[in-house]
């Protein structure tokens, strides 16, 4: 990762650089999207640089530390990431302002000759970026409206605290030349949330992707989950209540007991013992399984001893924080993947399953409606209808293997043709070319004045928060 002014864009690339801004390059879904987008554009011949406030080499994707991408950490010295684990949104905005001013005053940004900007997650800096570099258009990637994601608004004080930031989010997005979203579902949510924004800015769908180049054969040995040969129904999700994993447990329990013999429901996914919701929800799911007379077992370490000691009569397995090797093995051996969240913005797990030739049962809301073809690559069912989910599970258990393989092949072909990195990069490149082809009015003094107003509103919010 770079720490000084680097060389200008190579002469063989299109004039100028496509510059990304992302607040924290960790290992989440938003970070994976940014990395894939940057690598995809780079593979298409563009010079790409990513600026970020934070990137820990021990906690980031390989492309961010192995030299694949030019990642530059800036604007991290003045403002902390939070103040007493609070005010994270204000700190993120101030850190972003610091980054923009640092790379502008040092001449680093001008040295790159920015051709276009791709910004995601944090829109508050767009007015300042537009003023500091007026000739390069901005594409803002909106994963989902932050005002709908923010938690803890039960109290009047919390709601008042968020008012300035919610206003800033909508106002600042208007300084982008285009807004990209991750699905038609999110596009509809954005239109309903900010109807006035639609009048000023084009909204484009750029689907996230999965890496289709490294999983052709899913190499490696299968991980044995205890003794016996069980058919696997698999769920992969973080242990959060909004993921509605309980739906899978209830639907599995509704399968006739005789048909559930030698079948396991495996609930695997992200779990952090420091996160109270993860601990509480796992306990709730265990209690739910017990109330439905389902024998269950939890695995927290994935060595040979822990996996071999799984009771043979455990029909529900909880696998907490599975390593990639176990995840790959599960996807290779599963008969069905159940994806239970409702109104999911997009959903990468169904794509991973289809790429592994596993049919998917998902909620008929949100992003999966766009990724799964009902009765072709999987099934879409009402998340409020447990019996409908149970019926699909039961049918899959008795479905001929040849029919499952046919669905799996159709799913793999769909992912490779529509949701590979090449497709994402092409959509993104087309969006950037469109905003580059249009003439844009140069910003006036209204922009820096607006930035000042937005900062004052943010400071006011802090005063309200602590008053």
UniProtKB/TrEMBL annotation:
Question: What residue stretches are annotated with the Glycosyl transferase family domain?
Answer: 228-411
TM segment ranges: 445-466
Q: Which Pfam families match?
A: Glyco_transf_4 (PF13439), Glycos_transf_1 (PF00534)
Asked if the record carries the keyword Transferase, the reply is yes
> One cellular component GO annotation, for this chain's record?
endoplasmic reticulum membrane
Where is this protein found?
Endoplasmic reticulum membrane
Source taxon at top rank: Eukaryota
Gene3D superfamilies in alphabetical order: Glycogen Phosphorylase B (3.40.50.2000)
| Reaction catalysed by this enzyme | an alpha-D-Man-(1->3)-beta-D-Man-(1->4)-beta-D-GlcNAc-(1->4)-alpha-D-GlcNAc-diphospho-di-trans,poly-cis-dolichol + GDP-alpha-D-mannose = an alpha-D-Man-(1->3)-[alpha-D-Man-(1->6)]-beta-D-Man-(1->4)-beta-D-GlcNAc-(1->4)-alpha-D-GlcNAc-diphospho-di-trans,poly-cis-dolichol + GDP + H(+); a beta-D-Man-(1->4)-beta-D-GlcNAc-(1->4)-alpha-D-GlcNAc-diphospho-di-trans,poly-cis-dolichol + GDP-alpha-D-mannose = an alpha-D-Man-(1->3)-beta-D-Man-(1->4)-beta-D-GlcNAc-(1->4)-alpha-D-GlcNAc-diphospho-di-trans,poly-cis-dolichol + GDP + H(+)
Which InterPro entries does this one have?
Answer: ALG2, Glyco_trans_1, Glyco_trans_4-like_N
Q: What is its EC number?
A: 2.4.1.132, 2.4.1.257
Q: What class of enzyme is it?
A: transferase
- Please report the name of this protein according to its UniProt entry: Alpha-1,3/1,6-mannosyltransferase ALG2
Q: Which organism is it from?
A: Hypocrea jecorina (strain QM6a)
């Amino acid at each position: 990762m770079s720490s000084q002014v680097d060389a200008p864009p190579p002469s063989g690339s299109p004039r100028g650089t496509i510059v990304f801004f992302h607040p924290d390059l960790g290992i989440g879904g938003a970070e994976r999207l940014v990395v894939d987008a940057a690598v995809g554009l780079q593979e298409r011949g563009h010079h790409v640089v990513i600026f970020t406030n934070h990137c820990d080499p021990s906690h980031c994707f390989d492309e961010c530390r192995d030299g694949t991408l030019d990642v530059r950490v800036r604007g991290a010295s003045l403002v902390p990431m939070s103040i007493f684990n609070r005010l994270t949104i204000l700190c993120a905005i101030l850190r972003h302002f610091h980054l923009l001013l640092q790379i502008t005053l040092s001449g680093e940004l001008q040295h790159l000759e920015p051709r276009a900007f791709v910004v995601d997650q944090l829109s508050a800096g767009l007015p300042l970026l537009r003023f500091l570099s007026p000739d390069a258009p901005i594409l803002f990637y909106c994963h989902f409206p932050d005002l709908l994601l923010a938690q803890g608004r039960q109290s009047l004080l919390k709601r008042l605290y968020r008012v300035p930031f919610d206003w800033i989010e909508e106002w600042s997005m208007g300084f982008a030349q285009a807004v990209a979203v991750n699905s038609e579902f999110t596009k509809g949510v954005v239109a309903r949330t900010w109807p006035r924004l639609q009048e000023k800015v084009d909204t484009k769908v750029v689907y996230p992707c999965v890496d289709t180049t490294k999983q052709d054969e899913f190499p490696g040995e299968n991980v044995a989950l205890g003794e016996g040969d069980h058919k696997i129904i698999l769920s992969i999700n973080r242990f959060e209540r909004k993921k509605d994993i309980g739906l899978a447990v209830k639907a599995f329990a509704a399968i006739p007991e005789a048909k559930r013999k030698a079948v396991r429901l495996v609930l695997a996914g992200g779990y952090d013992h420091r996160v109270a919701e993860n601990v509480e929800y796992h306990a709730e799911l265990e209690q739910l399984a017990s109330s439905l007379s389902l024998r269950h077992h939890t695995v927290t370490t994935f060595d040979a001893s822990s996996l071999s000691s799984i009771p043979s009569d455990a029909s529900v397995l909880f696998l907490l924080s599975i390593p990639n090797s176990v995840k790959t093995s599960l996807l290779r051996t599963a008969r069905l993947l159940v994806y239970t969240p409702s109104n999911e913005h997009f959903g990468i797990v169904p794509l991973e399953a289809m790429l592994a030739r596993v049919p998917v049962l998902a909620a008929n809301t949100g992003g999966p409606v766009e990724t799964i073809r009902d009765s072709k690559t999987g099934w879409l069912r009402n998340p409020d209808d447990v019996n409908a989910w149970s019926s699909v599970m039961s049918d899959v258990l008795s479905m001929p293997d040849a029919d499952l393989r046919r669905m799996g092949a159709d799913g793999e072909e769909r992912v490779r043709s529509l949701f590979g990195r090449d497709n994402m990069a092409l959509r993104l490149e087309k969006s950037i070319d469109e905003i580059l082809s249009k003439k844009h009015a140069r910003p006036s003094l209204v922009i820096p004045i607006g930035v000042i107003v937005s900062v004052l509103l943010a400071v006011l919010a802090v005063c309200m928060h602590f008053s």
